Automatic annotation (TrEMBL):
The lineage of its organism: Eukaryota, Cryptophyceae, Cryptomonadales, Cryptomonadaceae, Cryptomonas. It comes from the Eukaryota. PROSITE patterns: TR_MART. It comes from Cryptomonas curvata. This is Uncharacterized protein.
Length: 412
């Protein structure tokens, strides 16, 4: 029997809530807790919505009990006969539990925590004439929790099994004459509910889901890069693929280190999910933009800017244009999103606009069908009337209004 001072017990990280809940179970409250377990299961089996008015559901307490059992079961030393016992008073075994199903098995799931004892005589005190006792085989995997050290009735040598454990009956009843009358004994084999979670696991469920999702996002990126038409399966020009994936891993690493509480807050969890999913898109965009720029003959400076830029820099077309051109003071967002912007060329240093760029603008104005209008010296010239390029006097830095994205791209 474990002592409270045992090192093995201390290493289980039992919290005060679990100890308190287990001690409550060992007293009169276990009847109410067991009823709640089974009531919920009864509603579930009949497809009913679980709703109990004016009644305590003890939801947190029930979780704490199951969590404590799960932890304590790890250090339970099996009895020499590898059996535990449970007595039932004024009860008979249900016939359907003893009927063999289509798979050749008989038994069922106990929806409540299963309380047993290693002492047959204790089980006998819970039975009586016309009642029965279960002899339950246990094993290396199917283990219970010894709660004697915290029990209100330590002499009962109580062993608890998690809720929703399965009992398989392996023979018919054997009748015994005892000092409490003739009692039926059924042998059973237990399969513990190995999916029962601890309180810590419940708290970390969202974080675990996030971590699983992040692994899938990484795999999706690698798959998309292999299948992308512009990406060669083996070549990695400029190390862009490896670098982008490394940036994504850094993003995920930062998010994974956050406290569980961040994931259990709805608004924060939504933001974290969005950040990770957007990060995948930004990673793929970074590789795509780099390869497109490389194919378009962009200079080394532009390619280095793109390669070294953080993933967030690929969250919008405007930011990408700033990377490709190297000009961050230009109102790219207004041009891309609003397709209209007021620009005073007088604030620009004439040396920042190459002569070749000027020629591109002049050549494009008369041929690009996406250009709608431009304001020069306060006079609007519609596309349907054609363009007179002599109005665009770059040397005098005339103001241009409603400059669409097409022209902005052609500026550089």
């Amino acid at each position: 029997m474990p002592k409270k001072s045992d090192t093995s017990l201390q290493n289980l990280n039992l919290c005060e809530e679990e100890v308190a809940a287990l001690r409550l179970w060992t007293g009169p409250m276990h009847q109410q807790y067991a009823k709640n377990y089974r009531d919920k299961a009864q509603h579930f089996n009949h497809g009913e919505q679980i709703h109990v008015e004016n009644a305590d559901k003890y939801t947190t307490t029930l979780h704490a009990i199951n969590s404590g059992i799960t932890k304590l079961a790890r250090i339970w030393k099996l009895p020499a006969n590898r059996r535990v016992f449970r007595g039932y008073r004024k009860m008979k075994m249900k016939e359907n539990a003893l009927q063999m199903d289509c798979f050749g098995c008989k038994g069922g799931v106990d929806c409540s925590v299963l309380a047993t004892t290693v002492d047959y005589d204790v089980a006998l005190t819970y039975s009586g004439p016309g009642s029965f006792i279960l002899e339950i085989d246990v094993g290396q995997v199917d283990r219970g929790a010894d709660v004697s050290w915290l029990s209100q009735f330590p002499h009962e040598k109580e062993i608890l099994f998690t809720a929703l454990s399965n009992l398989e009956f392996i023979n018919d009843a054997l009748w015994h004459t005892t000092n409490r009358g003739v009692i039926a004994t059924y042998s059973a084999r237990i399969s513990s509910n190995l999916r029962s979670r601890t309180l810590e696991e419940f708290k970390s469920m969202r974080k675990s889901l996030f971590q699983d999702m992040s692994k899938n996002l990484r795999k999706e990126i690698e798959h998309n890069l292999r299948e992308a038409p512009m990406v060669m399966p083996t070549a990695d020009p400029g190390g862009i693929k490896a670098g982008a994936i490394e940036d994504f891993e850094k993003l995920l690493s930062r998010l994974r280190k956050l406290d569980e509480g961040e994931f259990n807050n709805d608004e924060k969890y939504k933001r974290l999910l969005t950040e990770a999913i957007d990060g995948k898109g930004h990673t793929l965009s970074k590789v795509s933009i780099f390869l497109e720029s490389l194919a378009a003959g962009f200079g080394e400076d532009a390619l280095v800017r793109i390669r070294d830029a953080p993933l967030e820099s690929f969250s919008s077309r405007a930011k990408v244009l700033a990377l490709q051109t190297g000009i961050v003071g230009f109102p790219w967002s207004a041009i891309v999103e609003e397709r209209s912007v007021d620009i005073d060329l007088g604030v620009w240093d004439g040396s920042a606009i190459l002569e070749k760029a000027r020629e591109h603008v002049v050549a494009a104005l008369g041929s690009n069908s996406n250009i709608r209008s431009v304001m020069v010296r306060g006079v609007r010239l519609d596309f349907s009337d054609g363009w007179d390029t002599k109005f665009l006097n770059w040397q005098e830095n005339e103001a241009v209004n409603a400059l669409p994205a097409t022209v902005a791209v052609l500026l550089w």
